[in-house]
# Entry
Amino acid sequence: MAEELAAVRCDLEDFAAEVFEPFARAEQRRWGGVYLRGLLLDGRRKSVEPMSVRLGEDGNRQALAHFITTSPWDPAHVRARLAWRMQQVIKPSVLVIDDTGFLKDGDSSACVSRQYIGTAGKVTNCQAGVCLHPASDGASAAVDWRLFLPESWDPASPKADPAKVARRKPCGIPVEVGHVEEWQLALDMIDETRSWGIDIPLTVADGGHGDTAAFRLGLEERGLDYVVGISTTTTAHPEEAQPHTPPYGGRGPRPQPDYPEPARTVKNLVIAAGRKAARPVQWREGSRPGSGRSGVKRMYSRFVALRIPPAGREIRKNADAPELPVRWLLAEWPADQTEPVQFWLSSLPADTALATLVRTAKLRWRIEHDYREMKPDVQAGGDEEVAGLHGDEYLRRSPRLRRTLRMGRDGDHMVELHRIPFQHRLGVDAETGPRVHHRSPVTHRRHDLPRGSG
# Structure
């Protein structure tokens, strides 16, 4: 790994100089670059002491610890620089909202609690957070992130756990930081990312967010189209259903228009449409060998797309007319299955092609693929090694540079990106103890903003 890192050191230093440029002091920029190199070197433990040993003559333990724990710099500036760079490199077609988590054996890390995370597929002891990934078919990168603070860690919550509340001060959690639902954290990050001048073409999320009507409404209020996963129990009306106003009896308030039939689950609506409504769609080529002309296996299945008005109290409350707004219901129904297996809801226009709906919904595979490739390199060595997510940022644990960031000349910007080789502040360090940074508003100076961003 040392030889591999030496081969790309110039590119890595250029990248570090770019993202650390807003730092006020030259020493901060220097040790930010050194810390970045330390994270990319071999070795399971990514705390300051073992990193300083691996860095050799650059391994000043005290300077690295100061940079991580007490050196005053605004992480929002670094995230903005990272987002601008990735906007150019990835040329994203979607913004993927992803939940991530870190399994924990103990209870010392900030915001650790028994909660559900997809990493384990069950309720377990862990930290959880939300990340934003610009993504295209070829690449993705996390550019913003939030730690989820459970209600048990919030002293203002009726579900507060005194033992966990007592851990807030040792973990460095500011007094003003309280419990915020994950879907609201995602909307907050979208607002922050847009404030940097980053274009968000389309939002993709899984069922953990898509099932929440308030999240979908929040995207619509921001003028953002979406394709989000939903569970089988989400309810809606058939497209042909119309609200009906019962006759007025002469007493009391006049009746309001309402749908005469109760809403049905999306699963029942798709089953009612029948197998005949399913159409074959190929959305991408896989990585495994196949028998086709391309030599690789094609990702293929059958899908049903229906126009339906989603139901629910929040949706009714926010509707401007008696008729509920109509959205796309997309369902995957493989030929060898007796019923549909996966569902999405989308606000894309009514004339959107089925293939476009499918390819957009399935683009979340890019994030899963990148995490899967990264997994052998990021096995945690316990609480001492990596704390994971803290306050505004989580440690993107990528100790190996799997692909090279290559810069051409004369306008030839040729970049291969598996994931950006940058990890932000370490939340808990073995020597210096845990630290949480409160989410701060973006306060860019004028010259920090890209042209045209206002």
